[in-house]
Write a structure and sequence with these properties.
32% of the residues lie in helices and 0% in strands. By secondary structure, the chain is mostly helical. It has a domain at 1-32.
Length: 139
């Protein structure tokens, strides 16, 4: 857990720019073997100045990579303008349902039924019901 905390603090400091990337990487690396001398450095944690290592005898010289690794694009074919055929007219759209005769016929039947029910119920006598019980008051 302390290692995880240390890594989080170093990461936060690296993001804020307080710690350089090389010191953060050095701090997170494995400890050196016991046979090597301890690293020397100042109190700020900066790595000691060291002379560049001489190239090994068997190593090949480093060659510079080209600026891009992608091959050159092939030339585009020449532009040819040709006359297009006329577009076919779109298929006719079906007529909407509210313009069909059967829709308005159904609306008429419903309206006539509602009118008949209203006239029937509103034209009746509002007297007591015609039952054998008469006009009884419940309360």
């Amino acid at each position: 857990m302390p290692t995880l905390r240390r890594a989080a603090v170093l990461g936060l400091l690296a993001v804020l720019g307080v710690v350089s990337a090389s010191s953060a990487a050095r701090a997170q690396a494995q400890p050196p073997p016991a046979t090597s001398p301890p690293p020397t450095g100042d109190a700020t944690g900066a790595p000691p100045a060291a002379a560049p290592a001489p190239p090994s005898a068997g190593a090949a010289p480093v060659t510079r990579l080209p600026s891009t690794l992608a091959p050159e694009p092939a030339p585009a074919p020449p532009l040819q303008l040709t006359e297009r055929t006329a577009y076919a007219p779109p298929a006719p759209q079906p007529e909407p349902f509210y313009r069909q005769w059967w829709f308005w016929g159904a609306v008429g039947v419903v309206a006539a039924t509602v009118a008949i029910i209203l006239v029937w119920n509103l034209s009746g006598d509002s007297g007591p019901p015609a039952t054998t019980f008469g006009n009884m008051h419940a309360f």
